[in-house]
Design goal:
Elements (H helix, E strand, L loop, with lengths): L14 H6 L6 H8 L1 H19 L12 H6 L8 H9 L3 H7 L1 H22 L11 H17 L11
Length: about 160
């Protein structure tokens, strides 16, 4: 009796997929799908900055007032951020630093984390979920609170927007 030969199992990209017109190498498609979310975040960020650059936040009525400022009369850590983004979009770095230095300092940090995420996705490596040691996160939180406090005190008026 002759042994029974079994056909090798079909793999994706094998003969049957070529007949149906599917691409043999799905690596390019998988790579594009991995970069979809970072690309979408980039497109949204560019759209938001473009909108803020086009619609001047220095004119009344274009954007709502900060709720914290409206209720308390004090500035939150984000007050002046729209005007800061508008100034940066128009190349006025000195104006941006005078409006909200915390926003200007946060932008390179955000760009770094976006770039790290994009590179991890492009290389098909896992994206770290733990951003940094807890002590560093607490220090950043403390810096934001300190900025919030100092910009509302009389001697910190240089930080006010």
């Amino acid at each position: 009796m002759e042994p029974v030969r079994r056909a090798a199992p079909l793999r994706p990209g094998g003969p049957s997929s070529e007949i149906r017109g599917e691409p043999r190498d799905r690596g390019a498609v998988a790579g594009a799908l991995r970069l979809f979310r970072p690309g979408a975040v980039l497109v949204l960020a560019v759209a938001a900055v473009s909108y803020v650059a086009a619609v001047d936040p220095n004119e009344d009525g274009h954007y709502p007032t900060c709720p914290f400022l409206a209720v308390t009369g004090l500035q939150c850590p984000g007050c002046g951020s729209l005007r800061t983004i508008n100034a940066l979009a128009h190349g006025r770095v000195d104006d941006a630093l005078g409006l909200n230095v915390l926003t200007v300092a946060a932008l390179p940090l955000l760009a770094f984390f976006w770039l790290r995420w994009t590179l991890a996705r492009a290389r098909d490596r896992p994206t770290r979920t733990k951003v940094s040691p807890p002590a560093l996160i607490w220090a950043l939180f403390g810096a934001v609170l300190l900025f919030w406090l100092v910009r509302n005190l009389p001697f910190g008026s240089f930080l006010a927007a």
